[in-house]
Design goal:
The complex is a heterodimer of chains A (315) and B (49).
Chain A lengths: L3 H15 L4 E6 L8 E5 L29 E5 L1 H12 L8 E5 L8 H6 L5 E7 L2 E6 L2 E6 L6 H4 L11 E2 L14 H7 L3 H11 L8 H5 L24 H14 L9 H5 L7 H15 L27
Parallel strand pairs in A: 1-3, 3-4, 4-8
Antiparallel strand pairs in A: 1-2, 5-6, 6-7
Helix pairs in contact in A: 8-10
Chain B lengths: L17 H18 L14
Classes of the chains: A alpha/beta (315), B mainly alpha (49).
The structure holds iron/sulfur cluster (SF4) (2 copies).
One iron/sulfur cluster binds next to α9 and α10 of chain A.
Chain lengths: 315, 49
């Protein structure tokens, strides 16, 4: 995967030199290890800052919303599906973007890696399926395969669904992954137990909204949690306010979330709020046979009506 | 997410279906009453002295 970077740089430089696009969105090294941040290259020289490794988990579709210029964007499987969603929702036009596809074998779970060390991680290098992590309390060589982000471990669409040029050959998709074992487990709980599960899940949330800000779907000009007239939900970390925020945000992502994992990756508290969006994703498959972001020509289930939409819950 | 299924009801009722409306509302209130008050998803304001 590290090998992609030369090709990514070559394509990006060419696009900027030829004036095909005004900007290419990729990744640059963050100030902390495992925290690559978006990089907006506007000149061929800027492209020198690009990096590509196993810490590019943020979804770059997030930076396309309502842009007017021509943009090149590097897209993993999940980013590409969010780009399709953006196009379907009229947040950007297909002809405005040049998608540089990056077939992906999964990004690293920074929370999990950090939990393996007592002290702060100073550097992370990767080599041939292995990660060499150096922290204050020593160096460890770890298997990348054991440290995939939770969503990457069960990803079924690793290759970009749309692209104008690929940075590498497509990778083999994981077959027979059981995407919803964890959701099914919660589905079988009685209501009181479910309540306790979510109470516990969100108890550490500090309402920083990093999850919302990292999400490509959360592009409303004013989020319902920020409104004050009327104030739909309290702004404190009262457990009910916090859960109201998470439950509603999840519903706003129904039929749109591609399980890119940006939200969970961004969370400073390591909260797995994807348990909500994954349930809705599963429901959309069960009820409407719908997986978001796979096809530019299909309308999402929540803005179409079909005669055979399930309605047995209506009396 | 921990709300009892019996608290949530959906129904299509046209404005001309007064009897159906009454039936449904009666069923809903009976079902919810049988479950008792919902204690979880309720925000308690901090007590001010
Ligand atoms: S809710 Fe999370 S997993 Fe879903 S699209 Fe948004 S950031 Fe990605
Ligand atoms: S990023 Fe984490 S702590 Fe911040 S609001 Fe989201 S769940 Fe809460």
């Amino acid at each position: 995967m590290v090998g992609y970077i030369d090709k990514i740089k070559e394509i990006s430089e060419r696009l900027l030199k030829e004036g095909t696009v005004e900007m290419v969105i990729g990744f640059q090294k963050g100030t902390l290890p495992m925290m690559n941040t978006p990089c907006f290259a506007k000149t061929p020289e800027d492209v020198g800052n690009f990096v590509w490794d196993s810490h590019c988990g943020i979804n770059l579709a997030n930076y396309l919303t309502d842009r007017k210029e021509k943009i090149g964007v590097i897209a993993k499987g999940c980013d590409s599906r969010s780009i399709v969603t953006h196009i379907t929702e009229n947040k950007i036009k297909r002809e405005q973007i040049f998608v540089i596809g990056a077939p992906c074998k999964g990004m690293m779970d920074r929370h999990k890696i950090a939990s393996l060390f007592e002290t702060e991680i100073r550097s992370v290098a990767e080599n041939d399926g292995k990660l060499i992590v150096t922290a204050g309390d020593g160096e460890k060589t770890l298997e990348k395969a054991d440290l995939l982000q939770k969503n990457c471990a069960v990803c079924a669409h690793r290759n970009p669904v749309i692209h104008d040029e690929l940075a590498a050959d497509p990778v083999e998709d994981q077959k027979d992954v059981d995407r919803y074992a964890d959701v099914r487990e919660i589905e079988t709980m009685p209501p009181a137990e479910k309540w306790d599960y979510f109470d516990d899940l969100f108890s550490a949330c500090i309402r920083c909204y990093a999850c919302r800000n990292a999400c490509p779907l959360c592009y409303c000009p004013t989020c319902f949690v920020d409104e004050s007239q009327p104030q739909w939900v309290g702004k404190s970390t009262d457990p009910i306010d916090t859960k109201t925020f998470h439950f509603l945000r999840a519903y706003h992502c129904a039929g749109r979330c591609t399980d890119c994992g940006s939200c969970e990756r961004a969370c400073p508290m390591g909260i797995n709020m994807r348990m909500l969006t994954k349930k809705l994703e599963k429901d959309c498959i069960d009820a409407f046979g719908w997986e978001p972001g796979l096809d530019l020509n299909q309308r999402p289930p929540l803005d179409t009506y079909k005669m055979d939409d399930p309605e047995d819950f209506i009396k | 997410m921990g709300i009892e299924p019996g608290r949530l009801h959906f129904s299509w009722i046209s404005s001309a279906e007064a009897t159906k409306f009454v039936d449904v509302v009666t069923q809903v209130t009976d079902a919810v009453r049988a479950l008792g008050p919902h204690e979880n998803f309720v925000k308690h304001m901090p007590k001010v002295a």
